[in-house]
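If you are new to this repository, start here. Below is one unmodified record pulled from the training split, so you can see the exact layout before writing a loader.
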Amino acid sequence: MSRFLLALAVSLPAAFPAAAESPRVTAVEAVAVTVSDMDRSVDFFTGVLSFEKLSDLEVAGADYERLQGVFGLRLRVVRLRLGDEQLELHEYLAPRGRPIPADAHSNDKSFQHVAIIVSDMAKAYARLREFKVSHASTGPQKLPAYITAAAGIEAFYFKDPDNHALEILAFPPDKGPEKWHRKDKLFLGIDHTAIVVSDTDASLRFYRDLLGLQGRGESENFGPEQEHLNNVFGARLHITGLRAAAGPGVEFLEYLAPRDGRPAPTDLKANDMAHWQTVLDATDVAIGAAALRLAGAFFVSPGAVAIPGRELGFGRGLLLRDPDGHGVELVER
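And here is the target side for that same chain:
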């Protein structure tokens, strides 16, 4: 059992009661990922995937060191937008972190991606091939009719320059919100971020019962198309979707088979390339921190950290790890 799951298992009850002191999450503000070469990553996301660059700045100092749990940091942050959703790229100019292991797999517990909706899968795949992106899937997969909740969805996993997994996804006419059926652009926005979890119930206690995200459906996916999408032989997944009132969703991927995915490294740091953090807007981070500590959540920050300069647009923040080690940042604007 990972130290992250153990921390919650020790003190978090099977059903965490709603309380006024719990952090009230109002939106999934953004998804952030650590990169090794900012200019290269910006070129990739804007040039290949049509993201728009919104801001570019550097931060340093004790407040950010405590927030991110990295001493002596100098951090460059670029905010990108695609449709209504936002992605943050974090480059640690100092200290430099570790690359993603070359033998990382889609069923490892550290796995996370963002699902980018496209209006035409064939055209989107052709564009990725034009730029010679690295495949994670063998090719685009259309999920079969026997997976009722996902039937007709087309999807493809690929890699960015740092070996992060990304997904393009196209909904059939009978699925997905109306905005994902526009035809005016090829890349439309981010539907969700997906994380591999070892225990759906433990993750629900964290994201739903503690943080207040709401369930938005589930599915059990299996078969050759799913195996080739994830590039995991024998893959059988229990998938659970959650959402806040605004922003992209959070999707759990629990591998019912195979169960040999590796846990997240216990020494994972925010400057490592395997680190992602889902950024959640919350109404009162300081009060929420007390409830999270009482519940046994794993803190990276020492507590709610005040950011007097508000360089990144928020006044207080708190970085946590979920039961499987995925980064979750609560921010108060």
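Two things worth knowing about this chain: The first helix runs from residue 3 to 11. Helices lie at 3-11, 38-47, 62-68, 121-130, 200-210, 224-230, 285-294.
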